[in-house]
């Protein structure tokens, strides 16, 4: 059990180091990178078509909703930032050409944020090789082993989310 815990700690540190390297490569700070990841990741969940080719899981990045957007309010909630701070993040990403913003046709007070082709190209450069390498590493496991790995990952994520809630509830 101790070895598993140590490997998890090392894995978390490697994720953190990768995020720092990705932010540096893209000329972003970590908060801006998190925001960009949310906008790009929303498209994967929505199945938005991506002209840059397939992502690691066969999906393409983009955004949620019919036009591939997330609202500024959704970003603010996900980032746990004030609306003003979220606007500043969106301003920086828009200034470097990674997102666009538009008014929701159904609700003119609602601002929608979408990834640009430049953001999708950056995603392909930085993240696609990670997906390919990960798929290659997982190819040595059979379906039963992959099911166990998936179960472990889901349980580990639930533990982490529970600890985030605990720290938030404690005021920390």
Key phrases:
172 residues, mainly alpha, 7 helices
Question: Can you describe this structure?
Answer:
By secondary structure, the protein is mainly α. The chain has helices at 2-26, 30-46, 72-79, 83-95, 117-126, 128-138, 143-169, and strands at residues 69-71, 99-103, 111-115. It has a 3-stranded antiparallel β-sheet. It has 7 helices and 3 strands, in the order H-H-E-H-H-E-E-H-H-H. The longest helix has 27 residues, at 143-169. The chain starts with a helix and ends with a helix.
Distance between the termini: 28 Å
Whole-number radius of gyration? 18 Å
Structure summary, number of beta strands:
3
Dominant shape: globular
State mean pLDDT (0 to 100 scale).
86
User: How large is the share of residues in beta strands?
Assistant: 5-15%
Largest sheet: 3 strands, antiparallel
Order of strands, main sheet, comes to 1-3-2
Number of helices: 7
- SSE series: HHEHHEEHHH
Helix share bin: 55-70%
Instruction: Report the structural category.
Output: mainly alpha
Which stretches of 5+ consecutive residues score pLDDT under 50?
A: 48-67
């Amino acid at each position: 059990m101790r070895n598993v815990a140590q490997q998890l700690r090392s894995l978390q540190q490697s994720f953190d180091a990768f995020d720092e390297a990705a932010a540096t490569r893209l000329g972003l700070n970590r908060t801006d990178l998190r925001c960009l990841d949310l906008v790009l990741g929303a498209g994967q969940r929505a199945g938005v078509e991506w002209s840059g080719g397939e992502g690691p899981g066969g999906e393409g990045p983009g955004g949620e909703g019919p036009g591939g957007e997330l609202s500024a309010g959704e970003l603010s909630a996900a980032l746990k930032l004030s609306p003003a701070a979220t606007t500043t993040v969106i301003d920086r990403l828009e200034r470097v050409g990674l997102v666009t913003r538009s008014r929701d046709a159904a609700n003119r007070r609602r601002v929608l944020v979408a990834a640009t082709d430049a953001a999708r190209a950056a995603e392909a450069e930085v993240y696609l090789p990670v997906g390919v390498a990960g798929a290659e590493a997982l190819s040595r496991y059979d379906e039963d082993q992959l099911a166990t790995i998936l179960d472990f990952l889901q349980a580990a994520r639930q533990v982490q989310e529970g600890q985030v809630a605990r720290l938030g509830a404690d005021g920390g």
